[in-house]
## 1
Amino acid sequence: MTKQQKQPPLILVDGSSYLFRAFHAMPALSASDGQPTGAIRGVISMMRRLIKDFPESPIGVIFDAKGPTFRNTIYSEYKAHRPPMPDELREQVEPIHAIIKAMGLPMFVIEGVEADDVIGTLARQATETGIDTIISTGDKDMAQLVNQHITLVNTMKDGDAFMDVEGVKTKFGIPPELIIDFLALMGDKVDNIPGVPGVGEKTALALLQGLGSLESVYERLEEVPALGFRGSKTMPKKLEEHKAQALLSKQLATIKTDVALEMGPADIKLVEPDKTALLDWFKKLEFKGWIEELLSAGETVDDVEQALDVTYETILTQQQLDNWTKQLAQAALFAFDTETTSLDYMKAEIVGVSFAIETGKAAYVPLAHNYVGAPEQLDRDQVLAQLQPLLESVDQKKVGQNLKYDQSVLARYDIELKGIAFDTMLESYVLDSTATRHDMDSLALKYLGHKTIHFEDIAGKGAKQITFDQVAIEQAAEYAAEDADITLRLHQALEPKLAEHPTLVKVFKEIELPLISVLSKMERNGALINPGLLQKQSVELAKRIDELEKEAFDLAGEEFNLGSAKQLGEILFNKLELPVIKKTPKGQPSTAEPVLQELALDYPLPKLILEYRSLSKLKSTYTDKLPEMINPETGRVHTSYHQAVTATGRLSSSDPNLQNIPIRTAEGRRIRQAFVASPGYKLIAADYSQIELRIMAHLSNDEGLLSAFSQGKDVHRATAAEVFGVPIDEVTDSQRRSAKAINFGLIYGMSAFGLAKQLGVSRKSAQEYIDLYFERYPGVLTYMDDIRHSAAENGYVETLFGRRLHLPEIRSRNQMRKKAAERTAINAPMQGTAADIIKRAMMSVDQWLTESQLDANMIMQVHDELILEVAEAQVDEVVAGLKLRMVAAADLSVPLIVDAGVGDNWDQAH
DNA sequence: GGGCGGTTATA
DNA sequence: GTATAACCGCCCG
């Protein structure tokens, strides 16, 4: 007998079953336009997996149609209690259908019957033509279809749970042909199939295993009591009573295999996917990973759709430059970008500049490419001199990507970039701070579906990376001109989106845009530090660290690396057998600070480790590093403030981070002593007092909190008095400490659990504190509830000035994620409003200092604090003016209080 | 050399 | 319980 080549199995997918399951299993994801995407992602990734698992097989996807089916005709109550499809799922159905079609998977929606019936019919027909079928479903009812040629697979389960005849027997305890009878007896709550009352899974199985089929059960009712299951004595009566219902249920539960279909299994064929359509959908839904996957190496989205229509010019002659200068002068808006030798704005040398005046029309002016065989280029100084009037003109509007960098670099060439009308990084950030990173490559992919040339593509990466002046001009031109072109295109995509939300336009134009230059100046001002002082501290720290290490080795009885949490854990918990208090997410015993703190009460080694850790941190991060960060030209350290990083609107600082310089310990404060004023100058440190709590008072309008602040009370003391029911001047230190923790907890959206941990009390007493607090400050409770609700309703929260933070997870069915989003919803308006306020203050202070020509500069910002360096003679005037402007930066229903200190160093100024 | 976990500095 | 950046060790390629 010649064995015929086995055909690959036909795959039939129960689309509707996966639709619902994906909807409920996935987090509440959404695209930035609000389109929900969780179910789409879930269903489509399931399809992708099937294609991967069965590359040879034709795959058909079947969905339920809208409207009644024949089952409603025979039983009007069928599926009558199903709630209507949630809107968020309904909005995802069309995209799912469209994407499945674009993937090249034949899709069927047949009215009057259910997906199950279509699948049953197709599977039977396939069997008849000698083709085996695999049905992909999450619905156990389908088990009735299983036979020698038909198996089930649950693609959503890990490891793809296959179920053949044996599998059905193992899982249900009965063969496939009895599944219908099983369902008929048991009924189905969800589909509203009645079944026989009093018969559940166990009874139905006992009946069928004992007597065969439903019909046979009814023929042999007198044998039922002998089966001996619970309630078997009264069962015949019940069965008899509900016989009609049982038979109806069987009819309802039976999947039809004889639906009249216009197509058959032969119509399910592999079709080439429609890449363009898929790209469109993935772009719209922001499925970035899948977009990248669709593209073969080196291919861009534009290769698949239409390539960008571009004319990029490389400017090597004076005539070309003159021509472009003229066109730039006439342009209402142009995009501008500099190419340099370094990311460090204080060291970067300009290598070239690029412009775009309209979509696709861009130019690159190479100025300092420096490699063997590089062509002669226009003189950098001359070109910059020619461009200077354009760049310095307020009326000549520019758009760029992170123009703070370009502004700082140009300042090194004594060019003051003005006329900054837009910055695409900030447009994206204001639009949705968390939707994406705000670098140009990410934005181009997200908003234009364009995969840009990455810097690493032309310069390499890691140790082998070359600087931009080493890059061949041909490649550099393509890269640089594209940057300008894409910047312009991004702006054209982002501006209309921003314009839809007038409050966001205000945040962009009145806060973020004017802040660019303020930050650029602060960064370039830099902070003066005394490296000798830090180096001296480093030596002292090294000595103490060395001593601690020796003592630790003695206690441990062996030498080990104190900096290795792994080795330390080994010593503490295995060798010395100290109790494990907490585990890290990866399961090893935690040696984090609070854990060691607790162990230190009973054992000597943890205390040593704590001191070792804190001193090593100070040494490696601050006393060793800061002197290395001093710029040799200016003798100062120049941080970078990032304007588009945090979710809430705060700035962040890096290289070095000047927003986490120690202050809590005496050792740490010595580091602040190394932040000094130049001779003849002083440092002023001015910080907002309790700004976030004041914002909470304002936003919540809580009477008690408002009056506490209005009367100038110590708010933690006032809270303690209320919560502990004592007169305000009898509040103990410990009560005040607790109240302070409660106040902080409120700002963080605390739970009783978290507060308990913080205070070291039981969860129950923490809850009592919280209850008492809300009793005394009911406005705060109302506010917290309101913000949770409005966050859930809108999907975002807002600061006082209209900045938005999107919180897609606020509707997550995963309670952990939902709760986390709720905490963010509570915290973000306070943290974000505080950020808005200090940003407004910085602009006001900057304007004042510039106009008054005072000998004073802002040099640092630490979230609620501004540090200025001021000529000694002007200190009093600047302190007064600074406080005035910081206080006036917002008009709240409670006073804003600013405390300012003056000193020769940062520690003294506090 | 790159990425990640664990830890710790700040508001 | 919120928001960050940066260090070290460790493991991988």
## 2
Amino acid sequence: MKETKERILDSAENLFAESGYQATSLRAITQKAEVNLASVNYHFGSKEGLVDEVIRRRLVPLNKLRMQQLQNVFDHASSQKSNPNAEDILRAFIEPTITFLSSSNSLRHFTLLIGRSFAEPDDTVRKIFFSLMEPIFNTMMKGLKLALPNITEEVLFWRLHFSLGATSHTLRCIDNCPMTQLFNGKDPATDAESLIGLLLPFVTAGMEAPQ
Amino acid sequence: MKETKERILDSAENLFAESGYQATSLRAITQKAEVNLASVNYHFGSKEGLVDEVIRRRLVPLNKLRMQQLQNVFDHASSQKSNPNAEDILRAFIEPTITFLSSSNSLRHFTLLIGRSFAEPDDTVRKIFFSLMEPIFNTMMKGLKLALPNITEEVLFWRLHFSLGATSHTLRCIDNCPMTQLFNGKDPATDAESLIGLLLPFVTAGMEAPQ
DNA sequence: GTCTATAGATTGATAGAC
DNA sequence: GTCTATCAATCTATAGAC
């Protein structure tokens, strides 16, 4: 039997990912976690405190992976006295995400929550999420400017924006895609390797398109 | 003074776009519309009935524009005894959307709501939205298969998916983009022509990337 | 740390006068 | 069609016993 605190985090992660922050009540969370309602406020202070820790618990280590992989790209480029290329920058963002997604059922739920967070209407959740993401975005912009010096910063900004949109949309739709039925009834592949192999060429081609 | 029904629709459209369906109360809607609380249930039966009409009121004519433009692409191609090309198919989706966005303040709110709807956690809203979108997606897939016969259907499906993700993410972020501050403090361009000129080359290059 | 009980506010919906 | 008044349910949060 896991600790109460962890049971609450797991349950909240699961339900926030499925139904969103606003639509998920503390009662639903404690019921699924099989703990007492009051324990949420004891351990996290409030619903906001809970969602803060739900996001932080996974996103801090995930972003550490992303940042390390970005640093590797920079280091490797400068050791060759060349610039990083766009595909490697984008891969440093996407690969850890998709790997996270496929590594366990629990992390799979969190990945859906990340996808949700990109489109989250709630101000509190947005602030938590984007404050954690900002260093990653800044570093990616820095790399993309080096990789594609002929494309203006404004266009690179938008293309990064589009890439993140494509990625987050994909994360949200993996388990529950309303479009799936379009594909001839057959379920399209959603394993980690296939997804990276599909998404990365798409955003790389978009990023490198002539201006 | 507009009719009560229309005032409610406008107010709901505005607030749903800003804060999402779940987080918006009927009281907030009627207060902004300066009408009585009970009038929502008189005119629309329920909150679900209201959101259904909010979406339908704009999305039906918008999708009619999209479908006409798609039909034009098919007609023009067959009159030349050739296949449509991917860029024209994608433009037939994106151009009416962005034009809608820029045509008036009221439609601007609805466009944000469309962006929201792609990521909507609420089952009711999702069902309404995707049932209206399905014919468009099907027609686009048909056109893309003709345009890019060397790319498998599964890959085309995913690339259409990515394109819609990029587009909807952009719609959501136009007025309230948490990433804007990344771009050196300056606000990136968000007028209709600029957006089409940025988004369309991105998704076209991604769609046509060698497999 | 965990529980019961409940406060206090807000929600969607409706009954009934006009 | 529009209003007041209110119901019944639900929500987050907390007080206080154990």
## 3
Amino acid sequence: MNASPRGKVTREALIVAATGVFARDGFHAASLRDIALAAGINQALIGYHFRNKEGLYLAVFENMVEQIRQRIGPIADVIDAALKAADSALDREARIELYLPPLLRLTDGLLALMASYESDNWGQLILREQQAPTVAFGVFYDGLMQRVVSLLSRLVQRLREGDTESEARLLVATILGQVLVFRAARAGVLQLLQWQRIGADELSLIRTRIHRNIRAMLEIGD
Amino acid sequence: MNASPRGKVTREALIVAATGVFARDGFHAASLRDIALAAGINQALIGYHFRNKEGLYLAVFENMVEQIRQRIGPIADVIDAALKAADSALDREARIELYLPPLLRLTDGLLALMASYESDNWGQLILREQQAPTVAFGVFYDGLMQRVVSLLSRLVQRLREGDTESEARLLVATILGQVLVFRAARAGVLQLLQWQRIGADELSLIRTRIHRNIRAMLEIGD
DNA sequence: GTCTATAAAGTGATAGAC
DNA sequence: GTCTATCACTTTATAGAC
């Protein structure tokens, strides 16, 4: 790490630029020349600060995970609290009232994250890693996704008492799929729905649809 | 059809090898040397048969679309027939009996396609194009996906009379998401469910879950 | 910490012999 | 149709001056 502010500025500029270029081109096609140029930083400094291309790539993921954590952290903390205040004596209606809203809030957060134009880069980076995991996938999954799916699974289990943990987790996978599709198959979805982009209006339609789907999948009436 | 079978063999060997290498490395990172080596074909012949790297890439997509069409074609034809035998006078129960089985058959087919280890390469190629569409995306969407989503949308509309076409299409998107997640987020799903692979047993569990979800989303009881 | 300059290896494409 | 050989260019990484 570099304590001096000069090096820190350089590091951060490189990470920001690299996030965009790696997302756009993928690890291999991305060029360190491009990244250095986009950052306005001399190319040789990449070697100095990150050792090599892979070191820079990992730094991009660590930075991304940290930023996403800051976004969904508050929601996750609320859910943790709700889960800790657990009470198996609750009747079905009370459980729904307690656990469903935070579950929907979490999926809303993920959806907003996936659909937002702002986080385009992150989505691209993560999806590439899902397809062909490198060491960077561990940075993402262990540092972030593990907690999200754990929270979702526990919420689903509370909402569906009969389910085993693996049943609940399978249901979580399909719930996540409904959110994921708007990022992973974005080009196809836009074509299918005849949308130009996923803006606020479109996001609202999607959110409503997903809420209904989740309620239906959890066998909860309106 | 080719008078000289020699060139045809070369073409096909190159397409098979290129499918694997493009899927593994992506368009940019894939090397024509690698492809030629994997095919056991001289590198210069790529230029002769496909003009350049992009020509080979497009040939890979055309070949892929053709093969997938052959797989889902029969199911699609059955659905077309069912839709043509349309009758608005049918009551709800009869519509469910007529339209739900083919819908589930189609999603089952897509799921099997997405989960199969065999079609690993296709999934990778398509997902990459979804994220950063090139002209190859059109080959895939227009040649294949358009028909699938059209069939699904029409089935959903018949099963949910009140829906507008865009409502039905949005529902189709979320249905496809539940299938897609097992390919697009495969690494994460395996981790989440503590599976080593998606084999026949796992596929069966997924299929059951998705059937239940779809029935719930369509507001159809068991 | 930052720069210039360059080494070493890889890339896609193609000319020309057979 | 297929091959060898090679060109023109780009890539990452790094040595060495400041």
